[in-house]
Amino acid sequence: MEQLIAKLLGDFEKGFLDRRQLIRSLALFASGAAAPALALAQNPTPSAPVAPAKAPAFKTMELDHISYQVKDYRVTRDFYADLMGMEVANDNGKTQCELRFGNSMLLARNHFRPRGGGEAPAAAPATLPNGRPAPTSLVDHISYRIYSWDTDQIREELVRRGLAKSDLRSDVGGGPNYSSFHVSDPDGFNLQISGWAGPNDSVNKKK
């Protein structure tokens, strides 16, 4: 616990975390540490020993963004800005914009922009390859931001788990010091894992 707190404070001092992210991170770890003690107090004599939980590969900190593919991003933009008070940012005036709230955002973009980039077509196809009507809008991926990001280490872990090939390239489209990877979860959903890359991260050394 003390090592984790020291790491958070170090990241804050180096500028990897802002004040709000530091407070939220400390609260997350504090609640996680308090849970076992509370469980023991409620059940001081468990009938059977509880096996220690397996350490996860990554520590999810917060929602990074949700990507919406919509019929007209401007309608979506105005709706969420007017009703939910989201802040409009990086509006290209043509196909997409960001709608920021707290440390997260909603990415609204006209459908169906290819995942690898490029401009969205003027209109969505009427049907899917299987002949069924194409949706007029969808959530094409959700991105989760994780703690203590290292691009090379994250890639190695994803490759080790068989979720990606060794030549998997990071997506750095989220701005300076941003790095992420897209993989598929067991149900085929597009999972983006993201984080803030430090000055010694490989994505920054290539610049």
Structural notes for this entry:
Helix 1 (2-13) packs antiparallel against helix 2 (19-42). A seven-stranded mixed beta sheet has the order 2-3-4-1-5-7-6. The protein folds into two domains: 2-42; 60-205, 2,3-Dihydroxybiphenyl 1,2-Dioxygenase, domain 1 (Roll). A hairpin with a 6-residue loop joins strand 2 and strand 3. It is 30% helix and 24% strand. It is of the alpha/beta class and 207 residues long. The model is unreliable at 33-42 and 113-123 (pLDDT under 50).
Portion in helices: 25-40%
Q: Give me the side-by-side strand order of the main sheet.
A: 2-3-4-1-5-7-6
The parts where pLDDT drops under 50 for at least 5 residues are 33-42, 113-123
Instruction: Report the sheet with the most strands, covering strand number, pairing sense and barrel closure.
Output: 7 strands, mixed
How many DSSP helices? 5
Give the N-to-C terminal Cα separation. 35 Å
CATH architecture classification of the largest domain: Roll
The CATH C-level name of the largest domain is: Alpha Beta
Query: CATH superfamily membership of the largest domain, which one?
Result: 2,3-Dihydroxybiphenyl 1,2-Dioxygenase, domain 1
What would the principal axes of the Cα set say about the shape? globular
The H-and-E topology, N to C, reads as: HHEHEEEEHEEH
Q: How many domain units?
A: 2
CATH topology of the largest domain: 2,3-Dihydroxybiphenyl 1,2-Dioxygenase, domain 1
